[in-house]
Design goal:
Blueprint (H helix, E strand, L loop, with lengths): L5 E5 L4 H15 L4 E7 L10 H20 L3 E7 L9 H15 L3 E5 L9 H16 L21 E5 L8 E4 L4 H9 L2 H17 L16 H17 L6 E8 L2 H7 L1
Parallel strand pairs: 1-2, 1-4, 2-3, 4-5
Antiparallel strand pairs: 5-7, 6-7
Helix pairs in contact: 1-5, 2-5, 3-4, 5-7
Length: 264
Amino acid sequence: MPTGPVLIFTAHADDCEFLCGGTAAKFAAEGRDVYEVITTNNERGTYELTREQIISDSRDKEAREAARVLGKKDIFFLEYPDGFLADYPINEIREKFMRFVRKIKPYTVITFDPWAPFEPHPDHRVVAYAAMEAAGFSALPLYHPEHRDDGLEPHMVAEFYYFAKNPINANKVVDISAFMDKKIESLCAHDSQMRLIVDDMRRSLEAIGEAPEEMALLDRDNYGPAIEMFVRSWGAKVGEAAGYEYAEEFRYERAGDLIRSKAE
C-alpha cells in the first residue's frame, strides 16, 4: 500500500469534496499526508453574496473546515479569478503547479481528467491540462531549472487519479463506504456553495417549466437532505458494479504503464 503524500489539484473550493472527497478521506485515514491546491478565488459561485463575501467564506472558512473533516494536512490558494483561468497562459499555471509537485513530492496526484468529454467549465479544463503536464514534467530537470535555486529538486510522480463529471474512461473504483459520512459532512461545510447548488437546481427546473415533488426538497436553508440524497445516490450507483455500498471512480495511470504494456 502506498504511503507517500497525495497532492490534489482543483479549480474551486468544493471540487475535491464532490469528486474525490471520499478517496481523500480514505488516504488520510491510512496515514498519508493529503494536500490540495485550489487554483481560483471562487469569487463567482453565488446568486446572493458579494464578491468579497464569497471569497472570504469559501476560502478562509468553508474550505478549511472541509479540509479538517476529510483530514487534509494543508490546502493552498492561488487566487486566480473564478471563471477566467483560460485568460492566463497555461504554462504560467503549469509552472506554479510544478513548484508544488517538487515541494511536496507526492506519490499520488489527483486532478481533473483532461480527456473526459462534456466538461463545460473552462477552469476545470485548464486545471486538468496544467496539472497533468506539471506532474508529468516535474521529473525533468530542464523544465524550470530555476526551481533548484529555491531548493526544489525534480520529482517523479508514481501514480495519477483523474476524476471527471462524466468519467466514461474510468478504470479504477475506490471503495468509500466507510467515508461517505465524511464526504457529505465536508460538502456541507461549503455552506455558500451548497446553497448555490440548491438554488441552481431550483432555477434549472423552473427554466424548463417543471416543478416535481423533489422541488420541496430543494430548500436552500436546509440543503443537507438534498445534498445527502444526491451524493449517496451517485456514490451507490458507482459502487454497485464493483460490489461496494459507495464508491468513487477515476481514470488511473501509473508511472511505467507504457513500458509494462509493451512488455506484455
